[in-house]
Amino acid sequence: MISFRINLLVCSILCILVNTSTQQTVHRRFEYKYSFKPPYLAQKDGSVPFWEYGGNAIASGESVRLAPSLRSQKGAIWTKQPINFDWWEVDVMFKITGRGRIGADGLAFWYTTQRGDYTGDVFGSSDRWNGLAVIFDSFDNDNKHNNPYIMAVLNDGTKNFDHKSDGSTQLLSGCLRDFRNKPFPTRARIEFYMNTLTVYFHNGLTNNEEDYELCFRAENVQLPRGGFFGLSAATGGLADDHDVIHLLTSSLHSAQQGGQQISNDEQQKLSQEYQEYQKKLEQQKEDYRKEHPDEMRDKDEMEDWFESDGQRELRQIFQSLSHIQDVTRELHKKVDEVIGKQMNSLSMLSSVYTQSQGQPAQAQPGQAVQMPQFPITRHDWEVFTSNNQLMIQTVSELKSFVVEVNRKTDTLLTTGGGGGGNGVNPQFLNELRDNVHQVKNSLAGVAQRMSSPMQSQNCPSVTCVSTAMLLLVISGQLLVLFLYQWYKERKEAQAKKFF
Ligand SMILES: [Ca+2]
Ligand SMILES: [Ca+2]
Asked: Most buried of the four, 1, 50, 265, 286, by CB within 10 Å?
């Protein structure tokens, strides 16, 4: 109990922020009588100092479980004393966790003129409240797919909360935020200052203290004075654990107010009070050690379960670093994607360009695209293709010619063999001689043309001997020559046989 009070007292002294900054004219003062936080949140007898809880709520040293993950549970915790300041800021750290994809029903923060029920109809508290409710509604009663939802609902004590529409017609303002099953505890900072109500939300995806984002801000909000703070939760057919880890209240004061309220005298008084508490605590610790030497050793071992400020800072640094690493990795991936797309575009562009030029080319990734510079034009290419076609045609003709010659030779052999002549036909010899002369002349003509290419190029195609024709003639002459030689040998062999 003493240690708890000292904790709170330290906080209260540290949190008397006489802020001289020109930007921040609001003074905050930690209000330990309207706060709870671990460790030693609940005392050994289960009570929470300055607070009262009931229903299915259970308080431990680390948190207050307002409603456990069982069906139809309700619980609440309320301040014992009404607050005695006008403007305030409340930071609620909570965890709503459950095994279901959807959960129920939700949790609510209250500022009301009267303490509500512990088993009421509105998220565990009383309906027809007078004041403010900030509701964290998990379950989508109106099936508009807009839950979990955070909303503020004002009531003057006359209205019933409309569960069927999830309060959509009654809410002051709100925001769609998921607060279930987060890796870190979620947080809400509810600020009421100069009749402006502002709710910030920390989504629990990081452990960073600065990750609050604005849920909503509403101006000209009138709240009754001297209300009670409360927290409540309820489950229905579906059930989540609703755990509140801390509720920290600070009273807010304008610069003038702050100067008046937190006088030097008051600060000295608090410091003195704190020092007295510290002395008492040391004395009690000493006494306890003397009386229970064994238990103290156990307690020292238990200290290992808690982390020091340095350890916590280190852990947060590691978490931030890993977050930065993740972001960098993601960026790296994106840059790679962009480069890949750029490469694709480049190669597509180059192929389009190549097609338009009628030239095959491929762009290499990572290289500047250079267009090939061949010394042929489209016209040259077409001439080349048509010549190729002509060559194929000529070869085909040549083939049929060879077949024809073969056939004629066979006929000749048959007739020659039947004649049984022992000499060479003089007429045939003359023909052969003429043919050989013809071949000779043709070759000479070709040689002459080859030696003067320019002339050949300029020669009109109609009167020139075409390449195909030339080839045809040469082939024919050679074949005839070859056949003659063969015919001659055969005749000689026959003559020898006869002799
Ligand atoms: Ca609901
Ligand atoms: Ca809804």
From this structure: 50
The whole-number average pLDDT for the span 438-465 is 52
Question: 423-445: b or e for each residue (b if 16 or more CB lie within 10 Å)?
Answer: eeeeeeeeebeeeeeebeebeee
CA of 143 to the centre of ligand 2 (A): 5
pLDDT averaged over every residue in the chain: 79
**How remote is the CA of residue 145 from the centroid of ligand 2, in Å?**
6
CA–centroid distance, 232 to ligand 1, in Å, is 14
Cite the beta strand spans of 15-99 per DSSP E.
27-30, 51-55, 58-59, 64-67, 74-79, 87-97
pLDDT above 70 covers a percentage of the chain that reads 71
Going from the Cα of 138 to the center of ligand 1, the distance in angstroms, rounded, reads 6
Under 8 Å between Cβ of 239 and 71? yes
Distance 491 CA to ligand 2 centre (A): 115
Paired strand residues for 30 = 250
Q: What is the pLDDT of residues 269-290, one digit of tens each?
A: 777 777 777 777 778 778 777 7
3 state DSSP class of 50: coil
Mean pLDDT on 453-467: 46
Q: How far is the centre of ligand 1, averaged over its atoms, from the C-alpha of 108 (Å)?
A: 12
- H or E segment and range at residue 348: helix 309-357
CA of 135 to the centre of ligand 2 (A): 12
- 46 in Cβ contact with 63 (< 8 Å): no
Nearest Cα residue to 94 out of 67, 118, 119: 67
Q: What is the tens place of the pLDDT at every residue in 84-100? A: 999 999 999 999 999 99
pLDDT of residue 489: 78
Among positive and negative, which fits the CA dihedral 23, 25, 30, 36? negative
Give pLDDT, residue 50.
Answer: 97
State residue 293 phi and psi, 5-degree precision. Answer: -65, -35
309-356 pLDDT tens trace: 777 777 777 777 778 878 887 888 888 888 888 888 888 888 877 777
Per the structure block, which two tokens stand in for 205? 């995806």
Q: What is the mean pLDDT of residues 201-212?
A: 92
Ligand in nearest proximity to the CA of 144? 2
Which amino acid is present at 447? A
CA of 170 to the centre of ligand 2 (A): 13
Distance in Å, CA 34 to ligand 2 centroid: 32
Distance 134 CA to ligand 1 centre (A): 13
- Residues by chain with Cβ below 5 Å of ion ligand 1: 137, 139, 141, 166
